[in-house]
Amino acid sequence: MILVVTPNPAVDVTYRVAEQRIGETQRVQGVARRPGGKGLNVARVLEDAGRSTYSVLPLGGGAGRWLADALDQLGLAHSDVAVTGETRTTVTVVDDVAHPTMFGEPGPLVSPDEWAAVTATVDRLLDSGDVDALVVSGSLPSGTDPALVADWVRAARRQGLLSVADCSGPALLAAASAGATICKPNRAELLEATGITGDDERSGALRLLERGACTVVVSRGAEGIAAHTAAGVLEVPAIAGVTGNPTGAGDAATAGLVTALLGRPDRGAAVPVERDALRSAAAFGAAAVLRPVAGEVDLDAVRRFLRTEGSTAGGVAGSPAGGVAGSPAGGVAGAPHLDLTHDHRSGSPA
Known about the structure:
Blueprint: E1 2-5, E2 10-16, E3 30-36, H1 38-48, E4 53-59, H2 61-74, E5 78-82, E6 88-94, E7 101-104, H3 112-127, E8 133-137, H4 147-158, E9 162-166, H5 169-177, E10 182-183, H6 187-194, H7 201-211, E11 215-219, E12 225-229, E13 232-236, H8 249-262, H9 275-289, H10 299-308
Parallel strand pairs: 1-4, 1-8, 2-6, 4-5, 8-9, 9-10, 10-11
Antiparallel strand pairs: 2-3, 6-7, 11-12, 12-13
Helix pairs in contact: 1-8, 3-4, 4-5, 5-6, 5-7, 6-7, 8-9, 9-10
């Protein structure tokens, strides 16, 4: 199973309106309310893709109780650490005219003792032998020591497991210093965390690599996705012609990346990120844009994107043209072989 830590979960509320207009009263045409926070979005997409997950998250107050009940209804396995603060709510307003507008609360104050309980739960699960990978995704509540993320990454490394950190700011730096297999910021998060001015993505990635990250995967939105190592950069363009709601597309891309990497025989703490994994990430991210809310993907679209985008050129010098060598016979050159046909709902470990 995949252990997913969501440090700052939320109740995600999405309002659909005809057209966003500042300073005016507007009629809401539809409301969707569901568990949110980047890690939970990742977990839900992984489950839809047939990967078992187990989520660890701090929850508090009425919003926290609602979120825990909603996870149960979705069939997502989870361990909740009770905190005294109220779990945050995020509101996204979407229409068919402008970009979505998101309002995000900062999250509760979580005490050191409460964080210690989260870490104890993470350690127990990693020690169980049932975990294949660790994903830490999302922001840290205000006042949280980013060293926590480093502790979780190091615990996964001790088990020889793939670790993915989709974080920002000091948490991203901490994950890199702890030797995360993959640090996965978007370009803006990368430049901000590393203090790079301008648009020099490569320099920012090199700073994370120098700290100890194995690979830095950068989401570029409409410009695609890239994997940086000390040896060079591997790039895959975004899926063309996809429009919709981009909220949660980066989380779906993380799920697509993990799905592809866990299908490799050499999966583990030092698994390389090759073209097939980036193409999977791009396909999942694009398929999420087609869904009305974050945390969902259109799996038929994932399959279609992987079939039609298989011959994309480019990448690191010396890599096979059109993708990774050894693609399955009868498939698209460079296309990852992903099992999206089975639903493995996870249960609670003993």
